[in-house]
Amino acid sequence: MTYFYHSVVDSPHLPRDLGHDSTQNMVVTLLGEFWRYSPSLTVPSAALVDLLGSMNVSPAAARAALSRLLRKGTLEITRSGRTTAYSLTPAVAATIPASEMLTMTFGQSERAWDGEWTVITFSIPETQRDLRQSLRDWLRWLGFGPARDGVWISPHSDLELTMNTLSGLLPPDGLIFRSAHMTGTIEPTEIWPLAEIRELYATFIAELRPVVYRLREGMVAPAEALRLSVSLLGRWRGFPTVDPDLPREYLPDDWPRREARRLFVAVHDACVAPATEHVRNVVGRYDPEAAAAVQGLTVAEAIEFHRTPEGTHVPVSA
């Protein structure tokens, strides 16, 4: 699934800017989150434009985003008379389960560590500065940090994902290997931007706490619940791309990820019912079948959905 990020970060140390709400990604989030059971079902373009209007996106910007996603191959289009409808392409829909499992389970528990490090070594000359910077950016995105010049390490790494991601970037004499044997010491704050990541979590927590109060007091209308849930998902999806998920022994005792996840779950789950109601009501004005297929899930339900064949045993939310 395509991701979008919310909080603007101006730092050369983080692997990716967590900023800039993207209308294109709002579209993909809407289709991926509310039509999990029917990823190939088409939704009228007028309904999508109306839903994006609920999130303060102008009709012109909404239609432009749909056109761009169609050109990119993210969406498919169908026409029946004067009605135009969109759906995710099969290739994009196929990425949703893994993407959502990563999003919904991130921070749920401390990740087990086998004591081994993934090590990547390489040497790229100054004349290939752009290639070297691209490789470093992708290594950061994968959770690696620079232990030495040309030596990057990570306590967790999917070797297949790493090799596929770095294909064409890692020079022929570059090495990727796993090792449990290491001499010397590792200072995490010198390898990973933990202070900046902590600040991201702190901002996230500070902004969500009053939202939890407003939700508990019933002060959030369905349209606002949709805006909150889509924005929240985009923000939370960004954290796995910046937080290297270090073993407990390499993190400060008061690492804020647990509190951030608690608030993410609280706000997301409180928004599910009103956001789903709003989506159904809007889409129902254009296509009753597409409206009937709308289904929002809590975090726990979404995790179970992707663990259960075709979600047959998942309880339904409002």
Characterize the main sheet: 4 strands, antiparallel
Number of domains: 2
Distance between the termini: 24 Å
Biggest sheet strand line-up: 5-6-4-7
Number of helices: 13
- DSSP, total strands: 7
Descriptive account of the structure:
It is a single chain. The protein is of the alpha+beta class and 318 residues long. It folds into two domains: 1-108 and 192-318, no CATH class; 117-179, 2-Layer Sandwich (Alpha-Beta Plaits). Helix content is 51%, strand content 10%. The protein has helices at 23-34, 45-54, 59-72, 90-93, 96-105, 129-141, 159-166, 188-191, 194-216, 222-242, 257-284, 288-292, 299-307, and strands at 43-44, 75-80, 83-88, 117-121, 145-148, 151-154, 175-179. The strands form two sheets. Strands 5-6-4-7 form a four-stranded antiparallel sheet, with no helix packed on it. A three-stranded antiparallel sheet has the order 1-3-2. The longest helix has 28 residues, at 257-284. It is globular, with a radius of gyration of 21 Å. The model is unreliable at 1-20 and 311-318 (pLDDT under 50).
